[in-house]
Design goal:
Number of strands: 9
Order of helices and strands: EHHEEEEEEHEE
Structural class: alpha+beta
Strand content: 35-45%
Mean pLDDT: 80
Low-confidence stretches: 147-164, 184-191
Helix content: 10-25%
Number of helices: 3
């Protein structure tokens, strides 16, 4: 079953900052409802993602994918090269600067799932996920950008785990221990 969706929206941030946020593909699980884990395998000469390993959830089915990215100054496009569930697809984000400095974004996606599903259900689900992705992406871009550009992400520091407490003094059990007198044989539950 195949479906295509298109979303056009405007965000009040300049295109360079939006592009930088798009190229943070490792952060996809933060704003894409279907992505669970993303790891960049290779990058092009400009440091942009080229080959990416993805764990996704498509229509409630887990899938591991190899995705090939192509990036230009105003477009990030991708195509599924391999899929453990036999899914396929491609899409892009295309950025256009508006006169007031805002960015118009065209998000296009094509999805192919090898599962039998009514076309209307697939299209509705894809549209709903696309709407959620757009809302989450806008919030993500706004959270990582500052007035002077992308904010520096501080390295997260974790507290050291507390040392385990010393065991309490030996206390006798409140009940007598079970004794099997050496005649215990485990059973596998078969007669």
């Amino acid at each position: 079953m195949r479906t295509k969706t298109d979303h056009r929206f405007v965000i009040d941030i300049d295109p360079e900052q939006v592009m930088e946020a798009l190229l943070m593909v490792e952060q996809l699980p933060d704003w894409s409802p279907s992505h669970q884990d993303v790891r960049v395998a290779s990058r092009d000469n400009f440091g942009r993602p080229k080959r990416v390993y993805v764990s996704a959830n498509l229509m409630g089915r887990p899938d591991r994918q190899v995705v090939e990215y192509t990036c230009t100054e105003d477009r990030v496009s991708w195509k599924v090269a391999e899929s453990s569930a036999g899914a396929g697809g491609q899409g892009w984000f295309e950025l256009t600067e508006l006169e007031d400095g805002a960015t118009e974004i065209w998000y296009h996606t094509e999805l192919y799932l090898p599962i039998p599903a009514p076309g209307m259900l697939l299209k509705r689900t894809a549209r709903r996920e696309g709407d959620a992705l757009v809302e989450n992406f806008i919030a993500f871009v706004e959270s990582v950008t500052g007035i002077g550009g992308l904010a520096e992400v501080d390295e997260v520091t974790y507290a050291e785990p507390a040392a385990p407490e010393a065991p309490a003094a030996y206390e006798p059990l409140p009940y007598p221990p079970l004794r099997y007198n050496g005649n215990f044989e485990p059973r596998l539950g078969t007669a």
